[in-house]
Amino acid sequence: MTQPPLTLFLAAPRGFCAGVDRAIKIVEMAIEKWGAPVYVRHEIVHNKYVVDDLRDKGAVFVEKLSDCPDDRPVIFSAHGVPKSVPAEAARRQMVFVDATCPLVSKVHIEAERHAAAGLQIIMIGHAGHPETIGTMGQLPTGEVLLVETAEDVARVAVRDPEKLAFVTQTTLSVDDTIDIVAALQARFPAIRGPHKEDICYATTNRQEAVKAIASKADAIFVVGAPNSSNSRRLVEVAARAGCDKAWLVQRATEIDWDGLGQVRSVGITAGASAPELLVDEVIDALKARFDVTIEEVETAKEAVEFKVPRVLREPV
């Protein structure tokens, strides 16, 4: 039986960013250097396949430092941690490696510099997300206030409206952040912003790529985990850019084929913590049902690479 034709628009860039790639390498190199088990505080990145693969290699994932023994190495996830965490690890004389994405660390440094200048900080982010918790935990309680929406800006109670700065979670939607920043600047004209955009290059590039395919595709699959902020934002961006059928799937097995319906074109992208082999799974599943023609839509080229910490490059 002849398969129906399908044009597959493949967004580029997609998938792993430099920070995720670095974090995974850190865990793998730590296991190679110190042997298993190596403990990881929180999922190293938000992707079940990646976490399961590292667990099979000897990583043990925990949510609290108190769950780690003193005599085994511990790695802090790419999302960053409050200052109290490495301080406690040092007090316990633990071997620890910080896998925080350098672009998240940049936001931490910004927050500290603003605080040193006497400014209270407003963070644009999602409550409960590890990156938000980590950034707010760089300073004492009350020095960083969280807003999630433009409506929150009207309610936030600040110490001095003339002495404020704002920082941003790196994985947000660029479009949503613009509205919140505008609300902050309207209410607090003296507020200082970052010298350079906090939302990371990978988040921006993946959102621009999905916008480029949204108007072409009858449906879009975003490969990523439900607890991945940047993956969820890609679904939202696709929907706002004109694709009525935009779904987040972790694996090809999650595709709702009945819900897909009669389509002639499909777009695929992947969150920054999703490996390419999961994209390949989705492509193979489509090829099993359609006569697929692939068209890659590239909106940017990425050549960023972050070095792993020196401790992992030194001999034991």
UniProtKB/TrEMBL annotation:
<feature type="binding site">
    <location>
        <position position="230"/>
    </location>
    <ligand>
        <name>dimethylallyl diphosphate</name>
    </ligand>
</feature>
<feature type="binding site">
    <location>
        <position position="79"/>
    </location>
    <ligand>
        <name>isopentenyl diphosphate</name>
    </ligand>
</feature>
<feature type="binding site">
    <location>
        <position position="228"/>
    </location>
    <ligand>
        <name>isopentenyl diphosphate</name>
    </ligand>
</feature>
<dbReference type="InterPro" id="IPR003451">
    <property type="entry name" value="LytB/IspH"/>
</dbReference>
<protein>
    <recommendedName>
        <fullName>4-hydroxy-3-methylbut-2-enyl diphosphate reductase</fullName>
        <ecNumber>1.17.7.4</ecNumber>
    </recommendedName>
</protein>
<comment type="pathway">
    <text>Isoprenoid biosynthesis; isopentenyl diphosphate biosynthesis via DXP pathway; isopentenyl diphosphate from 1-deoxy-D-xylulose 5-phosphate: step 6/6.</text>
</comment>
<feature type="binding site">
    <location>
        <position position="129"/>
    </location>
    <ligand>
        <name>isopentenyl diphosphate</name>
    </ligand>
</feature>
<feature type="binding site">
    <location>
        <position position="273"/>
    </location>
    <ligand>
        <name>isopentenyl diphosphate</name>
    </ligand>
</feature>
<feature type="binding site">
    <location>
        <position position="230"/>
    </location>
    <ligand>
        <name>isopentenyl diphosphate</name>
    </ligand>
</feature>
<dbReference type="GO" id="GO:0051539">
    <property type="term" value="F:4 iron, 4 sulfur cluster binding"/>
</dbReference>
<feature type="binding site">
    <location>
        <position position="229"/>
    </location>
    <ligand>
        <name>dimethylallyl diphosphate</name>
    </ligand>
</feature>
<keyword id="KW-0560">Oxidoreductase</keyword>
<feature type="binding site">
    <location>
        <position position="228"/>
    </location>
    <ligand>
        <name>(2E)-4-hydroxy-3-methylbut-2-enyl diphosphate</name>
    </ligand>
</feature>
<feature type="binding site">
    <location>
        <position position="79"/>
    </location>
    <ligand>
        <name>(2E)-4-hydroxy-3-methylbut-2-enyl diphosphate</name>
    </ligand>
</feature>
<dbReference type="GO" id="GO:0051745">
    <property type="term" value="F:4-hydroxy-3-methylbut-2-enyl diphosphate reductase activity"/>
</dbReference>
<feature type="binding site">
    <location>
        <position position="129"/>
    </location>
    <ligand>
        <name>dimethylallyl diphosphate</name>
    </ligand>
</feature>
<feature type="binding site">
    <location>
        <position position="79"/>
    </location>
    <ligand>
        <name>dimethylallyl diphosphate</name>
    </ligand>
</feature>
<feature type="binding site">
    <location>
        <position position="200"/>
    </location>
    <ligand>
        <name>[4Fe-4S] cluster</name>
    </ligand>
</feature>
<dbReference type="GO" id="GO:0046872">
    <property type="term" value="F:metal ion binding"/>
</dbReference>
<feature type="binding site">
    <location>
        <position position="17"/>
    </location>
    <ligand>
        <name>[4Fe-4S] cluster</name>
    </ligand>
</feature>
<feature type="binding site">
    <location>
        <position position="129"/>
    </location>
    <ligand>
        <name>(2E)-4-hydroxy-3-methylbut-2-enyl diphosphate</name>
    </ligand>
</feature>
<feature type="binding site">
    <location>
        <position position="228"/>
    </location>
    <ligand>
        <name>dimethylallyl diphosphate</name>
    </ligand>
</feature>
<feature type="binding site">
    <location>
        <position position="273"/>
    </location>
    <ligand>
        <name>dimethylallyl diphosphate</name>
    </ligand>
</feature>
<feature type="binding site">
    <location>
        <position position="46"/>
    </location>
    <ligand>
        <name>(2E)-4-hydroxy-3-methylbut-2-enyl diphosphate</name>
    </ligand>
</feature>
<keyword id="KW-0411">Iron-sulfur</keyword>
<feature type="binding site">
    <location>
        <position position="230"/>
    </location>
    <ligand>
        <name>(2E)-4-hydroxy-3-methylbut-2-enyl diphosphate</name>
    </ligand>
</feature>
<comment type="function">
    <text>Catalyzes the conversion of 1-hydroxy-2-methyl-2-(E)-butenyl 4-diphosphate (HMBPP) into a mixture of isopentenyl diphosphate (IPP) and dimethylallyl diphosphate (DMAPP). Acts in the terminal step of the DOXP/MEP pathway for isoprenoid precursor biosynthesis.</text>
</comment>
<keyword id="KW-0408">Iron</keyword>
<feature type="active site" description="Proton donor">
    <location>
        <position position="131"/>
    </location>
</feature>
<keyword id="KW-0479">Metal-binding</keyword>
<feature type="binding site">
    <location>
        <position position="46"/>
    </location>
    <ligand>
        <name>isopentenyl diphosphate</name>
    </ligand>
</feature>
<dbReference type="GO" id="GO:0016114">
    <property type="term" value="P:terpenoid biosynthetic process"/>
</dbReference>
<dbReference type="GO" id="GO:0019288">
    <property type="term" value="P:isopentenyl diphosphate biosynthetic process, methylerythritol 4-phosphate pathway"/>
</dbReference>
<keyword id="KW-0004">4Fe-4S</keyword>
<dbReference type="GO" id="GO:0050992">
    <property type="term" value="P:dimethylallyl diphosphate biosynthetic process"/>
</dbReference>
<comment type="similarity">
    <text>Belongs to the IspH family.</text>
</comment>
<comment type="pathway">
    <text>Isoprenoid biosynthesis; dimethylallyl diphosphate biosynthesis; dimethylallyl diphosphate from (2E)-4-hydroxy-3-methylbutenyl diphosphate: step 1/1.</text>
</comment>
<feature type="binding site">
    <location>
        <position position="273"/>
    </location>
    <ligand>
        <name>(2E)-4-hydroxy-3-methylbut-2-enyl diphosphate</name>
    </ligand>
</feature>
<feature type="binding site">
    <location>
        <position position="46"/>
    </location>
    <ligand>
        <name>dimethylallyl diphosphate</name>
    </ligand>
</feature>
<feature type="binding site">
    <location>
        <position position="101"/>
    </location>
    <ligand>
        <name>[4Fe-4S] cluster</name>
    </ligand>
</feature>
<keyword id="KW-0414">Isoprene biosynthesis</keyword>
<dbReference type="Pfam" id="PF02401">
    <property type="entry name" value="LYTB"/>
</dbReference>
